[in-house]
Design brief:
Blueprint (H helix, E strand, L loop, with lengths): L8 H4 L12 H7 L4 H9 L4 H8 L6 H10 L2 E3 L14 E3 L2 E3 L3 E3 L12 H12 L3 E3 L7 H8 L4 E5 L5 H13 L4 E5 L9 H6 L9 H9 L1 H9 L16 H8 L10 H6 L4 E6 L2 H9 L5 E4 L13 H12 L4 E4 L6 H9 L4 E4 L1 H33 L12 E3 L3
Parallel strand pairs: 4-11, 5-6, 6-7, 7-8, 8-9, 9-10, 10-11
Antiparallel strand pairs: 1-12, 2-3
Cofactor: FMN
Pfam family, one: FMN_dh
Family: Belongs to the FMN-dependent alpha-hydroxy acid dehydrogenase family.
Length: about 400
């Protein structure tokens, strides 16, 4: 029979140690976030529904979005026991520049919708973490102000080819003068995909006041206060005009008739590396290398935001890497949500991955500190994965460490 007795204070005292509760609400909120999924939930609670859906959603039935993420569930790792590594390295090089992680913060449009500090906060967090950040043509902070915010950080500039080639050339010149190191040319957006959530929410840039947005003000007063008391939300690199649906704006500005020949002037305007983003077939990967001379390419379905039911990047990655990986650096985006995913894409042939939604969740949840938290989550998860795989570092990963199980 079990003998019972009342516990002594000396036995209770170690059990009653209280963890200090941060007084800062942002710090307190981020302390509860241990994964990108946690940051997503924190973000959902902080911003108006139309803003969250703009970031979180995708095109049409969102099939590509779901498939991109589901593909990572099929990754199977092959760990090595008794590997004998006390420390592991998460660092690598991307386009010849050191990076603390095989991770690039991807270009995302309308970033000040997520937080009033927008791209400046993202660039600063990336620079502090030692990873590249790609600023979009559709930025809400200027090319020059983002450069100032990121200091000596690695900056790329993402370019859409505009109907107005004079504007296109001017954007390239400004990026060059501001010290951006690579030009990322996106080729999967002749027209914008139909984002059904945005249509249902009546999203415009900048937001317009309607009965629905007025209701949102009552639910998210801090977000609206920040929006209404800081600089007007507009495209810092473009003269966009009156508020309109973002799809109409893009279709008005972007050139849908771009061909291979349109890349020739870019080589005259830009003397650094060119990255071709939006590769969705082995044939196009070869064209990017052989006809465009791309120093890197991104296997991407635009996060599922363009053509729904497009190829799933992770499934395409090994074939692209085999076809052109010895001639150019292969990058990937879409569905990369964990540090283990970073290890998987490198093992399957990528130099690094680009992520967009995850850091925007962090930005919505906590501004610059939220972006830093997102990067820290990836770093911790990647480091743990390398240890568990028995691999000394990112650059030691190869096809022997991961495979894609059959669907």
């Amino acid at each position: 029979m079990t003998k019972r007795s009342l516990p002594r204070w000396s036995e209770l005292r170690p059990l009653l140690q209280m963890q200090p509760v941060p007084l800062d609400p942002v710090e307190r909120r981020l302390a509860r976030c241990h994964t990108v999924a946690d940051l997503r939930e924190a973000a959902r609670r902080r911003v108006p529904r139309a803003v969250f859906d703009f970031v979180d959603g995708a095109a049409e039935g969102e099939v590509s979005l779901a498939r991109s993420r589901a593909a990572f569930d099929r990754v199977e790792f092959a760990p090595a026991a008794l590997a004998g590594f006390d420390e592991v390295s998460t660092s690598t090089t991307i386009l010849g520049t050191p990076s603390a992680l095989p991770l690039v913060l991807a270009p995302t449009g309308f970033t000040r919708l997520s937080h009033h500090d927008g791209e400046a906060a993202v660039a600063a967090a990336a620079a502090e973490a030692g990873i590249p950040y790609a600023l979009t043509t559709m930025s809400t902070v200027s090319i020059e102000d983002v450069a100032a915010a990121s200091g000596d950080g690695t900056r790329w500039f993402q370019l859409y080819l505009m109907r107005d080639r004079g504007l296109t050339r001017e954007l390239v010149r400004r990026a060059k003068d501001a010290g951006y190191r690579a030009l990322v040319v996106t080729v999967d957006t002749p027209v914008v995909g139909q984002r059904v959530r945005d249509l249902h929410n009546g999203l415009t840039i900048p937001p317009t006041l309607t009965p629905r947005t007025l209701l949102d003000i009552s639910r998210r007063p801090q977000w609206w206060a920040n929006l209404l008391t800081t600089e007007p939300l507009e495209f810092a690199t473009l003269q966009a005009g009156e508020p309109e649906a973002h799809s109409a704006l893009i279709d008005r500005l972007f050139d849908p008739a771009v061909t291979v020949d349109d890349f020739a002037p870019l080589r005259e305007w830009w003397d650094g590396p060119i990255v071709v983003k939006g590769i969705q077939s082995v044939a196009d990967a070869r064209r990017a290398v052989e006809e465009l001379g791309a120093e890197a390419l991104v296997v991407s379905n635009h996060g599922g935001r363009q053509l729904d039911r497009a190829p799933t990047p992770l499934e395409l990655l090994p074939r692209v890497a085999e076809a052109v990986g010895d001639r150019t650096e292969v990058l990937i985006d879409s569905g990369v949500r964990t540090g283990a995913d970073l290890a998987a894409v490198v093992a399957l042939g990528a130099r690094a991955a680009l992520v967009g939604r995850p850091y925007l969740y962090g930005l919505m949840a906590g501004g610059r500190r939220g972006v830093a938290k997102t990067i820290a989550v990836y770093e911790a998860e990647l480091r743990r994965t390398l240890h568990l795989l028995g691999v000394p570092g990112v650059d030691a990963l190869d096809g022997s460490h991961a495979l894609l199980r059959a669907a």
